[in-house]
Structure formats: structure tokens, C-alpha cells
Design brief:
single chain; mainly beta; 5-stranded antiparallel beta sheet; 3-stranded antiparallel beta sheet; 10 strands; elongated
Length: 129
């Protein structure tokens, strides 16, 4: 709804529909969490970005992760299903802290990275489902 203000007051409101072209997402995925599953794997889960910050349809996600003490060696796992909001990171080093970040991918490019989440792979032979 739009209204105009002049010296004599406000005009009546009129409805104007404006459609914006899609762009990269403006917000990161929400509530990113990580939990150890085994000696060499961590499960990462998240929620879609805020609906007002998606900026068009999502086409997937990108999950970057690296051992905390080796920040220059990030690995990336791409998810091409926009409905998939979890991933299992495998082949990790035992008892190592990993920093993980997630970004949404839109038709016009990637959005911002989430805040980093740090989780450690398991130390012993116990596995958690």
C-alpha cells in the first residue's frame, strides 16, 4: 500500500505490486548445529534462511569445514537439494575440533556464510546416532 504526503495531508492508500528479480540470498542459514557421530564424522544441521532474506528460490547449500588449527585448508560439501538441511561430514581426523559454516545458494549466487560452529570428533570408539 502506498500513500503520498503533501502540504494538505495524506492521500488515500493505493495498492501497488512490485516484483523484484531474484538475487543471491541476503541472510545465512539459521540455527546451524554440529554434533559428533563417530571418530571421523560430524553431523551438521541448519534451518533455511529467513523467508524475507532468501531473495528468490534456493537451489541448495554449501557447507565449508576445516580443522580449527588449519584455517587455510577448508573443504566444501555442496548440497544440490534445497530441501536438505543436514549433512554428514566424513573422513575427518579423530579428536579434532572442526569449524563449520553453511551458506544458502540462490539462482543468482551464494548468500553469506553462517556464524562458525565448532565441534570435535569423538575421541574413542563410541558412536552416537
Amino acid at each position: 500500500m502506498v500513500s503520498t504526503k503533501t502540504n494538505t495531508g495524506w492521500s488515500l492508500e493505493t495498492l501497488h505490486w512490485v516484483e523484484m528479480p531474484p538475487g543471491p540470498p541476503l541472510g545465512p542459514p539459521l540455527q546451524v548445529r554440529a554434533s559428533p557421530v563417530s571418530l571421523t564424522s560430524i553431523r551438521v544441521t541448519w534451518l533455511e534462511p529467513d523467508v524475507w532474506k532468501r531473495n528468490g528460490p534456493l537451489i541448495g547449500y554449501s557447507v565449508s569445514y576445516n580443522p580449527l588449527n588449519r584455517r587455510g585448508q577448508s573443504l566444501v560439501k555442496n548440497i544440490t537439494n534445497p530441501n536438505q538441511t543436514r549433512v554428514l561430514l566424513t573422513g575427518l581426523m579423530m579428536f579434532t575440533d572442526y569449524e563449520t559454516r553453511v551458506r544458502a545458494l540462490g539462482q543468482k549466487g551464494p548468500g553469506p556464510l553462517s556464524r562458525p560452529v565448532i565441534e570435535k570428533t569423538n575421541e574413542d570408539g563410541r558412536s552416537f546416532a
